[in-house]
Amino acid sequence: MLAISTFSFAQENKKSGGGGASYLGPGNLNVGLSTYWSYSSSLGVQLDYEFNLARDFTVGPSLSYAGYSDSWYNYSVFGLGARFRWYADRVLNITHPKWDVFANGDIGFSIWSHKYTGPGTDPKSQSSTSPLWIGLGIGGKFHFNDKIGLQLIIGSGAQIGLHFQL
Hints:
The protein is mainly beta. It has helices spanning about 1-10, 90; strands spanning about 30-35, 40-50, 50-55, 55-70, 75-85, 100-115, 125-130, 135-145, 150-155, 155-165. Helices cover about 10% and strands about 60% of the residues.
């Protein structure tokens, strides 16, 4: 009887119970392709890791890179900051173990560089640091299993990627 009881509890889903309060955010490494509306809709890469901050909230370091060009310059933007997430599963009563819904906010700074690629030389090729950037978005995660899933975010930019439970 003890073995059967232990086995049944071991198989219990992380999201069982009322209100969907058990989101799968903490311990996630999130990697995705992003587009940034403020950088000429350029395509980039975003990476963040989630630590538990409080009930339904995570926070973690965030890194990003975007590159784009126009007829005269090549631009690179590296971002370093923090990403906050509020998982709304409990509030929205989402109990399905495959889904998480969240709102996110980003804060950090970015390092810009641009290089002249037109004819002749241009002394204006340089690097600079932005004092502060912020971003907001909403998103969702679909879990293929307890270790990997798909993530989609829309807001200050758009991101589609994978998340890995470490």
